[in-house]
């Protein structure tokens, strides 16, 4: 799995909602095959654009409160938060080109 900081229910507000730059949260679980597929793609995007957007991961099995409050029903779900709000939500694994298109406004 990518070496992204893990965010928890306890520190979500501080780490994500109060961040001064956009934060991409990868909601995942250990048993999720598509989550493992998208992980190296997110690592590549983070390596290329990590200066513009912060990347973190949240294990939905270990942290049920935040995913429930944001209606994360399927994983992988990738939410981008800016100024405390969800500004983009991507559900399901996508190829790198598709993810880059979805994230273009945050990484341009």
How would the blueprint of this fold be written?
Layout (H helix, E strand, L loop, with lengths): L4 E2 L5 H6 L5 E6 L4 H17 L4 E6 L5 H5 L7 E6 L2 E7 L4 H12 L1
Parallel strand pairs: 1-3, 2-3
Antiparallel strand pairs: 2-4, 4-5
Helix pairs in contact: 2-4
Question: Characteristics of this structure?
Answer:
alpha/beta, 5-stranded mixed β-sheet, globular, 108 residues
Overview of this protein structure:
The chain has four helices and five strands. The protein has helices at residues 12-17, 33-49, 65-69, 96-107, and strands at 5-6, 23-28, 54-59, 77-82, 85-91. The chain has a five-stranded mixed beta sheet with strand order 1-3-2-4-5, covered by helices on one side.
Query: How do the strands line up in the largest sheet?
Result: 1-3-2-4-5
**Termini distance?**
25 Å
Largest sheet: 5 strands, mixed
What is the percent of helical residues? 25-40%
What global shape is seen? globular
* Regions with little confidence, pLDDT below 50 for 5+ residues: none
What is the residue-mean pLDDT, rounded to a whole number? 95
**Total DSSP E strands:** 5
Rg measurement, Å: 12 Å
Q: What structural class do the secondary elements suggest?
A: alpha/beta
Order of helices and strands: EHEHEHEEH
Strand content: 25-35%
Continuous helix count: 4
Describe the structure concisely for a colleague:
With 108 residues, this protein is an alpha/beta fold.
């Amino acid at each position: 799995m990518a070496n992204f900081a893990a965010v928890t229910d306890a520190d979500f507000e501080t780490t994500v909602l109060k961040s001064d730059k956009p934060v991409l949260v990868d909601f995942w679980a250990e048993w999720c095959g598509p989550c493992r597929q998208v992980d190296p793609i997110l690592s590549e995007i983070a390596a290329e654009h990590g200066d513009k957007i912060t990347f973190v991961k949240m294990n939905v099995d270990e942290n049920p409160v935040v995913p429930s409050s944001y209606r994360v029903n399927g994983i992988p779900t990738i939410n981008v938060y800016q100024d405390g709000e969800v500004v983009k939500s991507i559900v399901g694994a996508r190829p790198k080109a598709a993810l880059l298109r979805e994230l273009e406004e945050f990484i341009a």
